[in-house]
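From the shared-data thread, chain only:
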Amino acid sequence: MHWQQEQTMIDQMSPARLAGMAIPESALNRLRTELPERVFTPGDAGYDEARAGFGLSDLPSPDVVVTATTAQDIIAAVNFARSQQLPVGVKATGHNFGFPYQGGLMINTERMQGVTIDPEQRTARVEAGVRWGAVVSAAQHYGLAPLNGSAPHVGVVGYSLFGGFGWLLRKYGAAVDSVVAAEVVTADGQLRHASTTSHPELFWALCGASGNFGVVTALQFKLYPVSEIYGGALFFPLEQAHAVLTAYSAWVKTVPDELTSAIVLARMPPLPSLPEALHGRAVITIRAAYVGHEADGARLLRPLRALKGLISDTFKLMPYTDARTISNDSVNPTPVRRSTMMLKELSPALIDTLVKVA
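Structure, as tokens:
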């Protein structure tokens, strides 16, 4: 469940609650008794911290925040929301609230940090608040890797159930395709184990649609035998965009499934984590990860490295725990405006358009 659930549940609310009818204090006190030190309302010490997430531009203002530590806490929160006709939203890391809103109940799962690795079955089970960095670190003890994204501080559940495109995408698929089971509290306050054999329709609905069907308390997913990759980025001046895009569009048709790549047009901020040669520059960058030997990865990159104007080349053989350095996503909130798309092909006409608007 993500913030998308809010709209579905709002449609079912009574006009009185939509108009801002106050939640009875007696009901809030009962919830506080059931969940001591885990219930926050506006004005409470800890309310702002409980509702805040990584993103700063779309901060919600819920009527109630429950900082859950167990699935039973989530059951109590869902039952309370149903009894008070409140919409429900869930926050693990708050990277993408969807949109700001007023009212309702927020379930904050960031305290739910359990991670279990089964090296024999090559699976992981994580609780709702776990971030990818913890899973990558735990899995690498056994030479295994999850299908995580580019940033280690993004939450596992929301990322996975919305698809999840990472650096092993072309080799092993999207993260959602590796989900084995989900433990989920549905709107009736029941904890259900959803998989292909248990509540299969609920499992199907969760995988890819994520919101509207319940609050996921834990997720189980496959791991893969990857301990190192050949990865990095090539940076070119934006003036070379047409040549780079044209070369890239031909190159991606020749590389094996073991190589996953992305191309980015960006204006680089003067961040200390970036090479000084890139500070303040408008660039086009090709990012990629190859599951295989360093020599083979270097051979695959030759056509791109031969392009004119190469500013910086960060490719190297690295432990999978360092895959985060390929994109170098900021670990702090950063003002940014971006647009992302997946394309079947980069046609000459599209390349002309991209260069024109860059």
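The longest helix spans residues 71-83.
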